# Entry
Amino acid sequence: MREMNIRPRRLRGNDILRKMVRETRISADSLILPFFIREGNGIEEEIPSLYGQIRYSPDTIIKGVEKALKSGVSSFMLFGIPNDKDENGTGAFDEKGVVQKAVKRLKKEFGNDVYIITDVCLCEYTSHGHCGVVDGGIIDNDNTLPVLAKIALSHTAAGADMVAPSDMMDGRIAEIRELLDEQCFSNTPIMSYAVKYSSSFYGPFREAAGSAPQFGDRKSYQMDWHNGKEALKEILLDISEGADIVMVKPALSYLDIISEVSKAINIPVAAYSVSGEYAMIKAAARQNLINEYNAMCETAVSIFRAGADILITYYAVELTDAIKKGDIG
Ligand code: PBG
# Structure
């Protein structure tokens, strides 16, 4: 018999073959675009910390959503920036609050052509900038729960399709679920920010939303990034309380967590590629140190490759264009 000299080798070929065998597929349907909405009228301003992103008001957000819809993005996450803040963040559940107004307008304008998710948290609405009610300088977990439920209910009553609590208080998913069910919103899903690390990558967001804590930090309620196993514990707790989708945040420094979580559970996993991740690419690209388009594509694909089902990203529109071109997906 003739002896064969077979060497193991990597598959080689042209673009058609490369696309044929891609292991990771992305669709615009899995992308969510965040928006910042400031109280007022006619606002359309560049966000300095998030170069390329625009802050709208409840009237102009129609334009922002329209543009995104044209490109093929139809899911949006709304963050509100109120004019007035107080100790207890009461603006967060005001029927005429900035998010509530925006949701109402968007649903009236676009109906079921858009899917509106609202961030449920107190930090943009409290004068101290913390995500919970503060008592004697300490974040009061249990007294924050009913307030969060009230916020979620007010968003849902305004027409939100899904609520996303990002505060990291213990027990809030159960509390929100119970109130929504009681008020006949049992079909409204909850996307829980289940694994939210105490990260430096939120910096540009806090600048954009004016939500930096005025004293201390968020380490008492956000997770320590030395810990991985704890992530699964948080996820399982939130699932047992009724979370429909769980989120890992940030994304890029936590691909290991996304990977483990997605293998361990049987509900959708969302990853939030946060403001600092976006800003890093923008800043490096503006200095011609990296190619923005390629870095955007590579990082987004890496998050899906790790196991995410959904990606929340400030690059949602640009990624959709990249998918259309066939560069990713
Ligand atoms: C509110 C919230 C934050 C982000 C999402 N929801 C800020 C924070 O926890 O400090 C960050 C998102 C981003 O950085 O893009 N709690």
